Amino acid sequence: MEGQTAFHIALLNKDQHRIPLKTRVLELEENKEYSFEITGDSESGAALKRIGKADG
């Protein structure tokens, strides 16, 4: 895939309710791998952090 796209990231709790975290817009490149980490100690304290982009 190439081009710009938006990813809507959410947690799904045990009751199957979605907890939106963040929308990320990325410029996609062919054969690249993107990594993210979810941090926090609760649903309301969860945060999304981009940790890297590597050759795929």
What keyword list fits this structure?
single chain, 56 residues, mainly beta, two-stranded antiparallel ribbon, two-stranded antiparallel sheet, 0% helix, elongated
Helix content: under 10%
Mean pLDDT: 84
* Spans of at least 5 consecutive residues with low confidence: none
Q: What is the general shape? A: elongated
Question: Separation of termini?
Answer: 12 Å
The value of Rg in angstroms is 13 Å
Query: What is the tally of helical segments?
Result: 0
Number of domains: 1
Strand content: over 45%
Structural class: mainly beta
Number-wise, the strands total 4
Strand order of the largest sheet: 1-2
Give me the strand/helix succession: EEEE
Instruction: Report the biggest beta sheet as strand number plus sense, adding barrel if it closes.
Output: 2 strands, antiparallel
What's a concise summary of this model?
With 56 residues, this protein is mostly beta strands. The chain is 0% helix and 68% strand. It has one domain.
Notes on the protein architecture:
- This protein has strands at 3-12, 18-28, 32-39, 47-55.
- With 56 residues, the chain is mainly beta.
- The chain has one domain (3-55).
- The radius of gyration is 13 Å and the shape is elongated.
- The mean pLDDT is 84.
Which helices and strands occur, and which strands form pairs?
Layout: E1 3-12, E2 18-28, E3 32-39, E4 47-55
Antiparallel strand pairs: 1-2, 3-4
